[in-house]
């Protein structure tokens, strides 16, 4: 019989988080403290709980541009090396408390130069926070650098170069983020080609605020190895009674090449990429054997964490212990660290922890 998976057990499952924005996940209390110390007076409230609600209300309007509007404030208070290091350090701590064993955090360095920091200093400060966090909390944190899709191709080329420059210091990938409609990834081809020639990792936000064409461009023009969100990939499939009965060539390609999809359930509801958890295509993707991963996107704006995303998978899609183990392992397989490190984490961290939890579950009294 199916055992009940408690929230506490979901929290303790070793989770792998591949899509999590630094500037969308900073603690509300930290935003308030930084604002006070920096005399930043534009926050709507100086009360951390109210601020947290305010961010979430602003994000939960069913549109990506509205969702993104709150980032002005988090970025405004992260303009010094100390503030960035603190946010990065706390990020690792929060992930560890959430049962995450490996996290790839992303952010856009160009949003942190308002007070004159150079990109190198920006990136170094975040990596310093991760280093300290890794030592104190015993989990692994790596960085992905985002270019912003509404800026020009010189900007994305600079960010691609920056990411590759830091490849041996903790940066593992390059991404394109920001408003999707009207800003196709193809506009930043030179940055992606630069990364490809450097044998570097690429993920691209696509199929969230725009349709499947954006996913197609991200993969076939830009060479993305993973897709951020990919929600609208469902538009390339004919579904009847929850079964995929026909697939277009793009969906078939994504399935056959095992391209990982960085699914962000709560965030998708907030931005309007999906209307509800019930109608979200995640379960269809999972049942059809797409390489899906579960992610938070923005823990502050979407008022979530990994345990909560796992709760949603349990409550709305009937996920079992084995499903969660598969998701954690598949996510780790999809990470941007090297193969040996991925295997190490799978065989020495994830599998043993799931084995222990499985024993605990087996020891639970079975109702007669
Ligand atoms: O769901 C999203 N879709 C697209 N862009 C996003 C999303 N969440 C955050 N950002 C954008 O990425 C930047 C760097 O972290 C953020 O400042 C925000 O503008
Ligand atoms: Zn994102």
TrEMBL record:
Entry annotated with the keyword Zinc: yes
InterPro entries: A_deaminase (IPR028893), A_deaminase_dom (IPR001365), Ado/ade_deaminase (IPR006330), Metal_Hydrolase (IPR032466)
Free-text cofactor note: Binds 1 zinc ion per subunit.
Enzyme Commission number, as recorded: 3.5.4.4
The UniProt record lists the keyword Aminoacyl-tRNA synthetase: no
Organism domain of life: Bacteria
Keyword line: Hydrolase, Metal-binding, Nucleotide metabolism, Zinc
Site (Important for catalytic activity): 229
Residues annotated to bind substrate: 21, 23, 178
A cellular component term, taken from the record's GO annotations: cytosol
GO molecular function, one term: adenosine deaminase activity
Cofactor(s) named in the record: Zn(2+)
Binding annotation for Zn(2+): 19, 21, 205, 297
Active site: 208
Pfam families per the UniProt record, alphabetical: A_deaminase (PF00962)
Reaction equation(s) it catalyzes: 2'-deoxyadenosine + H2O + H(+) = 2'-deoxyinosine + NH4(+); adenosine + H2O + H(+) = inosine + NH4(+)
GO biological process: adenosine catabolic process; hypoxanthine salvage; inosine biosynthetic process; nucleotide metabolic process; purine ribonucleoside monophosphate biosynthetic process
Domain spans labelled Adenosine deaminase: 14-351
Free-text function comment from the UniProt entry: Catalyzes the hydrolytic deamination of adenosine and 2-deoxyadenosine.
Family: Belongs to the metallo-dependent hydrolases superfamily. Adenosine and AMP deaminases family. Adenosine deaminase subfamily.
Protein name: Adenosine deaminase
